[in-house]
Amino acid sequence: MTSIAHPELEGLGTYEYGWADPDQAGASARRGLNEEVVRDISAKKAEPEWMRDLRLKALKLFDKKPMPAWGADLSGIDFDNIKYFVRSTEKQATSWEELPEDIKNTYDRLGIPEAEKQRLVAGVAAQYESEVVYHQIREDLEQQGVIFLDTDTALKEHPELFQEYFGTVIPAGDNKFAALNTAVWSGGSFIYVPKNVHVEIPLQAYFRINTENMGQFERTLIIVDEGAYVHYVEGCTAPIYKTDSLHSAVVEIIVKKNARCRYTTIQNWSNNVFNLVTKRAVAYEGATMEWIDGNIGSQVTMKYPAVYLMGEHAKGETLSIAFAGEGQHQDTGSKMVHCAPNTSSTIISKSVARGGGRASYRGLVQVQEGASHSKSTVKCDALLIDTVSRSDTYPYVDVREDDVEMGHEATVSKVSEDQLFYLMSRGLDEDEAMAMIVRGFVEPIARELPMEYALELNRLIELQMEGAVG
Amino acid sequence: MTKFEIRGLRADVLIGAEERQEILKGVDLTINSGETHAIMGPNGSGKSTLAYAIAGHPKYEITDGEVLLDGENVLEMGVDERARAGLFLAMQYPVEVPGVSMSNFLRSAVTAVRGEAPKLRAFSKELQEAMKGLSIDPSFAARGVNEGFSGGEKKRHEILQLELLKPKVAILDETDSGLDVDALKVVSEGINRARATGEIGVMLITHYTRILNYVKPDFVHVFAHGQVAESGGPELAEVLEAEGYERFVKAGA
Questions:
Q1: CATH number of residue B89's parent domain
Q2: pLDDT tens digits for A72-126?
Q3: Does residue A311 fall inside a structural domain?
Q4: Which parts of the sequence belong to the SUF system FeS cluster assembly SufBD N-terminal domain (chain A) (predicted)?
């Protein structure tokens, strides 16, 4: 234990979802992006004109916008080499049996049909490449008026909701990757929960990239009407390829008066995926928005789920956890914007870095003029497993009102020799001891996850810690 | 029947990259199961170093000698292997492991040491009884390991582990320090329950004779300047109580 550097640690070796399935659709898909590609996507989806025009406008914005000059190194992204649209099946399935064999096998191996069978979820969506290939929602919810559809279908069936809400929380020109998503978006989830309806068990979506150099650009829009509640859970994986893929999603959420929305993500992309996601919610009077954001995989992640607190007594909360292993940079955090009096926000961020990985917390708390009596608490804890890994904290605070309460706390700790010694002196081997310390560190967040995700997280920690210590 | 032998043990404390200092200067001691040996000595004599060096703390490096548990050289084992071989160290300052519940920790430790996971219900019952014996509130099982525990609570928790892990050799490092009379009694009863099996050898490290009123030693050793300076029966403790350690401090100076 005198050497706390653990060079033999290899995150890639432990990635379990790295297999690739046969890839006919992906092989024939074209690379690169221009107006023709965007028109083609829109035509294939037989979209209304306004959506096509919005896409084209967004493409122009994408071309104009500079790459972010801050955050992680994005120089590895080659926009000309990416496949922007891959259609893997002609028809969406409503039972797992209907899916093409290879896709069905993928979801079997990921355990998704099993979860549905056991009624752990109220609805399931599975997106494979660019489009949602499977969709199901429990009948009782449908009868209560809950809409849970893939975004493409929802656009056809509920154009009025799209005209009203699409692109209102995150406009096309918000940032370069939001523009890109708006230009080429495909798939994603659409949820509408009517007034006072509580969806007690989570709706779940599963995202899978199979094609090499694929770009996945799902678009999610969630509207929680007054007094309603929904919990949406998404998981993400991809095969391991030599060259990179891009995942650039946009998630817009509207939480109306006294409603509550919880959005849980466990992102476990393989280590060749650039994961650049814009997630933002608006919370109206008395509403609560909770982001639970787990970033375990990917090469680079830049993601800062945001809540705009628009009405009095609105609440925003982000619990985030990031693991950065060898070759990984997790640049994650949260953004809370207080626009009304008596609003409150909490950000709790935990990160674990090992094997030379880098975990950065980047967050903004903004209190606008007039948002008096607002409260905000930010707490960031970083745990370093060895001496070659890195942790940074970039907390930005912008307060334009006098009467507010702000708290900020940040800690960086190392796994101590004494903790390891203590656990090992009770018979636990070094890997077990390390995993136990890390599990304890993330426990405050793990306990907020649905049971099967908490177990999955624990299992991932154990895998990541195997051979983590020398 | 277990035989625990410390032979000619020398050890350095590692202070920095270049700096080290010899603390143990040839320790010889044999403990058989069923025996309790009190190791007494002035502050800074190397008592705790002896405990941690035997357990394998990375801050200490053994430079000579051997430690045998039934003939097996403990020093060639990793820290965790020593524990699984039957060695236990009750620490003076056990560390906090935040977020890990006591019950999870104890069950993991018991699983590791016994070589198989105990049946959940049987273990739960065993744990509850052991906690009751040490007057530990049942709510402790859900708390983080040593998290926010008082000194006395930490000590009780160490003895709880002693009772659950049932080692062949237990080294108790100043388990009596910082305990009031009531807590000392409770902790001593725990140690005596573990001793009652007759299958454990105990090395009881202490500065004061107070705990020896509750945990009766078979042998008393005076530790000074990194060595056993004098050995005797329980009567030696009485001499120390009357005369202090002065004689031994001077002798080696």
A1: 3.40.50.300
A2: 999 999 999 998 988 777 677 777 777 777 777 777 776 777 766 666 677 787 8
A3: no
A4: 141-204
Rg (CA), chain B: 18
Residue A58 pLDDT? 97
In a domain, A340, yes or no: no
Is there a contact between A417 and B78 if contact means CB atoms under 8 Å apart?
no
Residues of chain A with confidence (pLDDT) below 50: 1-13, 470
Counting every residue, how long is chain B?
253
Q: Within a domain: residue A87?
A: yes
- Confirm whether pTM is higher than 0.80: yes
Residue A247 included in any domain: yes
Domain range for B204: 36-58+79-250
Question: Looking at the domain assignment, is residue B19 inside a domain?
Answer: no
| pLDDT tens per residue across span A450-459 | 777 777 777 7
Please state, in angstroms and rounded to a whole number, the distance separating the CA atoms of residues B148 and B20: 33
Q: Domain range holding A423? A: 417-469
- Chain A within 8 Å of B20 (Cβ-Cβ)? no
Q: Which amino acid is at A410?
A: A
Residues of B in contact with A423 (CB under 8 A): 97, 105, 109
Below-70 pLDDT ranges, chain B? 251-253
Q: Is A429 touching B (CB cutoff 8 A)?
A: yes
Location of structure tokens 């081997």: A429
Total number of domains in chain B: 1
- Note whether A340 and A310 are within 8 A (CB): yes
Q: Does A427 touch chain B (CB under 8 A)?
A: yes
